[in-house]
Design goal:
Number of helices: 4
Structural class: alpha/beta
Shape: globular
Strand order of the largest sheet: 3-2-4-1-5-6
Order of helices and strands: EHEHEHEHEE
Helix content: 25-40%
Strand content: 15-25%
CATH superfamily: Phosphoglycerate mutase-like
CATH architecture: 3-Layer(aba) Sandwich
Largest sheet: 6 strands, mixed
Number of strands: 6
Radius of gyration: 15 Å
CATH topology: Rossmann fold
Distance between the termini: 33 Å
């Protein structure tokens, strides 16, 4: 069984002049939400075997906060450059290339692609993954290469505005 958690980066700041979209940091709300959302996974005893992140500052920062809360070494976070401007096809290629020794994977990225991909894989329609939202998908397949459209059960959907 494989579990894939698609996590949208936490809320980022548009206030700092001169920064590109790629460089935008988390804002105050994002810095509050990320540890809280990571703690929800911790309470569910979810421990990642692998964390993959977009290289954008806001995504890496979110992934690092989750890694700390979930006792995952932040230096082992796998940065996948293609996630930043990816579509469903690119995310599918990344997921299908995950070594099968990894049972639980967290993937940090961006909308709208994460929402599209959650709907592509899962059995529940998600309108939108809000910032720092988490979608949990589960597949009975033994190999990541076998994960494809419509075969996953959407078993987890949490986001900060449910709590704040």
């Amino acid at each position: 069984m494989k579990k894939l958690f698609l996590i949208r980066h936490a809320k980022s700041s548009w206030d700092e002049e001169g920064l590109t979209d790629f460089e935008r940091p988390l804002n105050k709300r994002g810095k509050r939400d990320a540890p809280f959302m990571a703690s929800l996974l911790n309470k569910e005893k979810i421990k990642p075997d692998l964390i993959i992140s977009s290289p954008a500052n806001r995504a890496i920062s979110t992934a690092q906060i989750f890694a700390e809360e979930l006792d995952y070494p932040s230096e082992k976070i796998l940065i996948e450059k293609i996630i930043y401007l990816s579509g469903i096809k690119e995310l599918e290629e990344i997921v299908q290339s995950i070594p099968d020794s990894n049972k639980t994977v967290l993937l940090f990225g961006h909308n709208p692609t994460l929402t599209y991909y959650a709907n592509h894989l899962g059995n529940k329609l998600i309108d939108n993954i809000p910032t720092c939202g988490i979608i949990g998908l589960e597949s009975k397949d033994k190999s990541w290469r076998e994960i494809e459209r419509g075969i996953c059960k959407t078993f987890f959907f949490e986001y900060p505005k449910k709590y704040f």
